[in-house]
């Protein structure tokens, strides 16, 4: 097939870069560090591989030959979906290969938040473990507690499996439509229940947001949301930071009844140094590491490379994103 021009704007593993270079002309340019090289390559690029960098209509205008964007991510909120659809530019992403890893991360954050792991590890590291840990430093049990999940896609269901099957936790979930558990997740039948949001918030000991960032979910987790949560409950976010009103979260922690928060994602990333969420004693913050394991990031890069090669060869990609449905 004809060699085309591919612009890679995030680091790819050597073996995946080699796959691309064997088939096409490849330029690697980080738009943040090499804006001129990036802009020059964009002008002739037929395909893009990237991830969290925001793509907008102006960037698409500067890429007149673009046929496909292959994202190394499952989330696609940093892409102009309607614009891509209008221009007939194919968008691909990397679902499924990261599901279990992100679910592991989310459960790790949940456990760390409820048992105060980061705070107590710091106590040891800073030489402040001078006597038996007293009640003021106790955490709260996870097993058997009720977990409420917002967003019940592949990752939400994977977290539910860990909670229900591993930790005996009743799972409530809220999503735009109920999930056919018999077909999609038979092991969760009788263990996960589609629940109205208010009831989920009133009953859950832990509320987990696994929501994509859309016009509907942006800022939806606000003061009224936290006020409706069960007193003493905790909040975990493993989806997208901008679904949360962070001022309302801090207010719920300091003046409401929110026990604690575990956050892998933030409205602005990296988290600004002056954000109170960085140092709040009842916040367990992580730097968006949901899919960040050697194995999974390689699998994501491999799938993103395969998607791109397929589209440029005129084939249907393994994992297209339906921009028309957005
Ligand atoms: C990031 C994620 O994309 O897949 C997603 O949507 O949030 C993460 O995997 C990743 O950090 C960027 O490669």
TrEMBL record:
<dbReference type="GO" id="GO:0030267">
    <property type="term" value="F:glyoxylate reductase (NADPH) activity"/>
</dbReference>
<protein>
    <recommendedName>
        <fullName>Glyoxylate/hydroxypyruvate reductase B</fullName>
        <ecNumber>1.1.1.79</ecNumber>
        <ecNumber>1.1.1.81</ecNumber>
    </recommendedName>
</protein>
<comment type="similarity">
    <text>Belongs to the D-isomer specific 2-hydroxyacid dehydrogenase family. GhrB subfamily.</text>
</comment>
<dbReference type="InterPro" id="IPR006139">
    <property type="entry name" value="D-isomer_2_OHA_DH_cat_dom"/>
</dbReference>
<keyword id="KW-0670">Pyruvate</keyword>
<dbReference type="InterPro" id="IPR036291">
    <property type="entry name" value="NAD(P)-bd_dom_sf"/>
</dbReference>
<dbReference type="InterPro" id="IPR050223">
    <property type="entry name" value="D-isomer_2-hydroxyacid_DH"/>
</dbReference>
<feature type="domain" description="D-isomer specific 2-hydroxyacid dehydrogenase catalytic">
    <location>
        <begin position="6"/>
        <end position="318"/>
    </location>
</feature>
<dbReference type="InterPro" id="IPR006140">
    <property type="entry name" value="D-isomer_DH_NAD-bd"/>
</dbReference>
<dbReference type="GO" id="GO:0051287">
    <property type="term" value="F:NAD binding"/>
</dbReference>
<dbReference type="Pfam" id="PF02826">
    <property type="entry name" value="2-Hacid_dh_C"/>
</dbReference>
<keyword id="KW-0560">Oxidoreductase</keyword>
<dbReference type="GO" id="GO:0005829">
    <property type="term" value="C:cytosol"/>
</dbReference>
<dbReference type="GO" id="GO:0008465">
    <property type="term" value="F:hydroxypyruvate reductase (NADH) activity"/>
</dbReference>
<dbReference type="GO" id="GO:0120509">
    <property type="term" value="F:hydroxypyruvate reductase (NADPH) activity"/>
</dbReference>
<dbReference type="Pfam" id="PF00389">
    <property type="entry name" value="2-Hacid_dh"/>
</dbReference>
<feature type="domain" description="D-isomer specific 2-hydroxyacid dehydrogenase NAD-binding">
    <location>
        <begin position="108"/>
        <end position="290"/>
    </location>
</feature>
